[in-house]
Amino acid sequence: MSIAKLDLEGKRFVVIEEAEYRRLKDAVGEAGLPPYPAADAEGLVPAVEFANVDIARKLARRRKLADLTQAQLARRAGMRVETISRIENGRNVPDTATVRKIDRALRKAGG
Length: 111
Known about the structure:
- It contains five helices and two strands; from the N terminus they run ββααααα.
- The chain is mainly α.
- It has one domain: Orthogonal Bundle (434 Repressor (Amino-terminal Domain)).
- It has a two-stranded antiparallel ribbon.
- Helix 3 packs across helix 4 (81-88) and helix 3 (70-77) crosses helix 5.
- The model has no long low-confidence stretch (mean pLDDT 90).
């Protein structure tokens, strides 16, 4: 990997290869998200557990894209911040009504 430094208008920039930029961006995007379940010896992943984690990850990403904190989203959705935290960390599986409340709040926020 090659790295170049560049000074423009009094600011210093680091130029890296696009592939490395994408790798770093993806790694940061994964930070703080619950991991997907590991595949078993046959390469199969438990479907329900995978779906629950996927919901958690998608809600967390949408919240971050809307530039909301968990507390802000909780307030907009009319629920406790602990509920949002538990959902995003994969510790709680939201019911349909809860997902709808969160989705409505995120749509209004532009996420």
